[in-house]
Design a protein that fits this description.
Shape: globular
Structural class: alpha/beta
CATH superfamily: Ureohydrolase domain
Distance between the termini: 40 Å
CATH topology: Arginase, Chain A
Radius of gyration: 20 Å
Largest sheet: 8 strands, parallel
Amino acid sequence: MVRISGTTKFLEIQVSKKEEIIEAFDPNGVGQMGRLFGLPFDPDTSEIVLIPVPWDVTVSYASGCSLGPAAILKASPQIDYFIKDIQDAWKLGVSMLPIPEDVFKESKSLRKMSEVYISWLEEGKDQEAAEMKVIPNTVNEGSEKLNIYVRALAEEYIKKGKTVGVIGGDHSTPLGLIRALSEHFSDFGILQIDAHADLRKAYEGFKYSHASIMHNALENKAVSRLVQVGVRDICEEEVEAIKSSKGRIKTFFDEEIKENLFRGVNFKQICDKIISQLPELVYISFDIDGLDPKYCPGTGTPVPGGLEYNEALFLIKRLVKSGRKVIGFDLCEVAPKGTENGFSEDEWDGNVGSRILYQLSALVGVSQGKLSM
């Protein structure tokens, strides 16, 4: 007699349930509001589980990206599911966990404190210095609690065999996921699409600043290489960090990419050079401000220049076609433009963000052999 373990039986039930869901769903019909992309999957029947992190405590310019997960969720059912070169992409199964209201409330509370502190720094005042210096400690404690929360949630689903992604929030939010992956993979690289290098150490006194995410990510020994694409706003501290990294950090500046294009180098060649710097296992960190700001006018720190929408997707397609496997990812800094009273009528940023997320999820599925391209 063959014995079937509880885990195996559970997986069999979930596969059967997923097949029933796929059979009953009409991809040419109307998507279900309140579900990511309008698809009928839940975390048990999804290959990819997304953790929404509504957090923008340390943003140094404009806030609003804590509303990013909600904006993406709202816009996502409007997309069409057909992807020309990925067969039955929607069948992969992607779902987003509920947006945690307690995290959102904590973000708003700590954001009020950080705004006072950032304004104090910018004004260069010495008065009330002792009181001001308490704020970074409080924010750092709250941010570390967030990292622990994200890491624990990521661990839960990684152990279930799911691929996990983070939907920010500001770019500090995926650190817990990167830490979790560092426990499961001994060697992987990060492909960072971003207008900023994010290599500052404790920017403005905040250890877990959105401007420090890659500095913090590199503290994990499993991250053997960081490849940055589209960077066009950078400080001397970050330039020095790149130079002293002994090749661990490779930055493809937006200016250099554009100059190569102007000289006649084709974008495929540029992408292949970028990808050649990455190991076999890759984590993708996609800050929406890596794109031209026309695609993300509401993002907190927009910078002129950047990748076109289809250039970013082409780069990720080339990565997948190279045979590299994507083990996790994040999409951050999506913010509804003109945010007021907790919401905005402008859905452009959420619209673009949801489309990037759908394409990115499908390409991750291809890299893992769960979809064909």
